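Entry:
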Amino acid sequence: MISLKNNKIKALAAGLMLTLALGTLGCGGDKKEAGAKAEKVNVGIVQLVEHEALDAANKGFIDGLASKGYKEGQNITFDKQNAQADQSNLQNIAHRFVNNKVDLICAIATPAAQTVANVTSDIPIVATAVTDYKTAKLVKDDAKPGTNVTGTTDMNPVAEQLDLLLKLVPNAKTIGTIYCSSEVNSQLQVELLKKAAAAKG
């Protein structure tokens, strides 16, 4: 669980829980209603690369907070960074957030989440566009993270997708898939596909 130490973080976390339905951000002590008057919070957003789905996740995070009363220029400031799929950029951005002492980090995509999690164990991290947090070594367990990371998953219904494919092409004997061999969550989904296919005989 994430330990939140001051009122402005507690207020932001309340908004995040409502917005993302996370349920794993631990807020001890008194809680402020989301959107209530609070000291301005600083949030760093790191996106792995420009991509339609990741752009939408970025916008959704900001829009969701706005719907809970966190308006940019009023009670929240965003430091929005795009790593352009460059690992050295991710490292620089992560250190930038830590040096600037942001209150919270939003990491979009697995490599972005892994990089910021490796740089700080103190700043709460909310991640999205991550398939499996445990496989990515971002949490100890999905139900009880045990780290400063929480977030939403984009796990695909792999077995169901295979079922649909076989309904469309019932005589298929060989199935190809495209994935990123250097990305652990991509590897995970390929393994799930192989297991689902093996179960079909």
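The longest helix spans residues 52-67.
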